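Render this sequence as a predicted structure.
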Amino acid sequence: MLTLSPVLTALTANLQSSLSILHKQDIQPAANSIGQYTQGLGQVTGVSEPIRLGDDCAAIPDGDGYLLLASEGIWPQLVDEDPWFAGWCAVKVNISDIAAMGGYPVAMVDALWSKCLEDSRELWAGMQAASAAYGVPIVGGHTNCHSPYAGLSVSILGRAERLITSFDAEEGDRLVMVVNMAGAYRRDYPFWNAATTAEPQQLRNHLQLLPQLAQSDLVSAGKDISMGGLAGTLVMLAEASNCGALLNLEQIPRPAAIPWKKWLTSFPSFGFLLSVPSDNVTKVQQIFHPHGLACEAIGEVTAGHKVCVQHQGEQSVLWDLAQPLTGFGA
C-alpha cells in the first residue's frame, strides 16, 4: 500500500475539513428543491428552451444574447467586523460572477439590514465606493435599519453575447488559473485584496478581458474563484461538468510564504478558473499576461468523478463527487 508524504496527507485533510468548502453543501437543498433546470420562461423571453441552474449566474436567453442574473449574500462576520469592506465585496463579487460568464454588468440592487441608521453608513460607503470604481450603478433594493442583526446581500443584472459556463469542461482540457497577484490579505480574513487600492480603470480593463475571452471561443468552461477558494471552486467546476480533475500544486501561482491551505481556500478579488483545450493555453495567456495578470496551467480535466491534488509526483483525492458538494451537476 502506497504511503503518501506527510505534507500531501495533511494538506488534503485540511482542505477536506475546510468550512469554506464544506459550507458549499448548504446549496444542496436548493438543488434538491428546484432541480437542475427551470422551465416556463418562453412567454417572457420568447425562447422556450430550459435554463440550466447552478452556474455563477442564471443565463436567460434574450434576443441575440443572454441576460445574466446573480445574487450574493455577504459573510455575517465580515459585515459585523469590517462593514466598509463588506460593502465593497458585495459589489465586487457580483460583478465577478457576471465576468465569469463572459458578460458585462448592467446594474445592481441591494438588501441591507442593520440595527440602526448609523450602522448602515459604512456598508453604504463601501458599496458606493465599489460601484463608482467599477462603473456599475446601484439602482434600488431594500433597507431595514431596525433589525436585530446586520446583513447584506446584493443582486446583479448583466448581459452576454457568448457564454462561459461551468458545464462544459472536457476531459484532456488544461486547468488554467487567472489571478491578480498584486495584492495583500485583508486583515486575517481569507480575502486576497487586489482591488480597493487599484486604479478604477485598471479594475474595469481587467474585467473586460473575460467577455473578450468568451468571444474568442478559446475556453471550454470557467468559474469565478469564490469563497471556497481555488480548491472549492475546482470541485464545483468538476461537479457541474460531470468530470474529474487533477490539481498540480507546483504549478499554482502563489504569494511567497503563504501556506498552501490558506491560499487554496482564499477568495481573490480577481481570480478565475478556466478549462482550456491544451492547444489554446498560450492564446489565453496572451490575453491576460500583457495586463500583468498571472495566467498559468495548473492541472487538467480528467475522466471519472474524483478531484485530486498532486505534489512532487504523488496524488491524493481531495473530493470524490460520488458524494455531491453543491448538488448542481449532471
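Summary. The longest helix spans residues 83-100. The radius of gyration is 19 Å.
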